[in-house]
Design goal:
Order of helices and strands: HHHHHHEEEEHEHHEEHH
Largest sheet: 4 strands, antiparallel
Strand content: 5-15%
Shape: elongated
Structural class: alpha+beta
Number of helices: 11
Number of strands: 7
Radius of gyration: 25 Å
Strand order of the largest sheet: 1-5-7-6
Number of domains: 2
Distance between the termini: 74 Å
Length: 303
Amino acid sequence: MRGADAGLNRDIATILTGVVLGTLARYWMLRRDFRQYPSYPHAVVTHLALGFVAATLGAVAVPAIAAKEYTAVTFLALAATQFRDVRNMEREMLVAIDQSSLVSRGPDFIEGIARTFEARNYLVVFVSLAASLATYVLSSLAGIAAGLLVMLLVRRFMRGKLIGDIAKVRPAELHFEGANLFVEDIHIMNLGLKDVRRVYEERGRAVILEPLDDNGREILANVGQRQAIAHDVAALLGIHRDVDTAEFTPLLRRKAETGRVGMVIVPIEPDMECLVAAVKNVPVLESAFVRPLDARAGRCAAD
């Protein structure tokens, strides 16, 4: 009887440790910054609840396998299906609200966000599994230590590159040649109205993004990546436009011969130092991340 009680207590400790560490991991990964997404409080509650479910599935798997209840592990496959639905839900909602943005995120940015929310639930399962396994084999203290260690590893895994890691961002001068707007030698667009040109001359700001290598060149060539830069910078510095003034939409154009990218924006906050910092801190999108220099042909072409 004592053996049965001891086994039950061990199973309870295993499940509790896994659930608590997994749920804490999801809360830790639920980062909210200037984008204010997920919104508070409803979306936060939704994702924390999904994190709790993911942690429970990971925590229960270890006692189930130890009890030779192998059918219980099939719930992990069911969880994968549910987490894919999370990605679809996030994508549909972001596409819907993107239509009302003055500067849209773009489909590449939206898909990256949706993938991130799906992947973080899998990471929660991994944290919960590690914590519950260490608790079952060793002790609750060992389970807590294992869960915290895996959380640190997960945090490292979540850290991606920024634009400042793949390109040099520097201030630049914008000028007009007739009705054509240029950032240094990069043509941006044609503006026929004199009033619009005057606004750009008085309040416009420009930067040049110079790729550090051929990998950075191809990342900046991605249209979705450039749209993400425009969106984040407009969100941070404000944008001098409304729904009927599309000519003030921030634009990024590429010099095909060199891979350099020129950006022009008419911000509400015209601080050039802040503009450069905002561009540098835009994340590199997963869909845009390529490494041609890892291939022999890419290295040969770069020589």
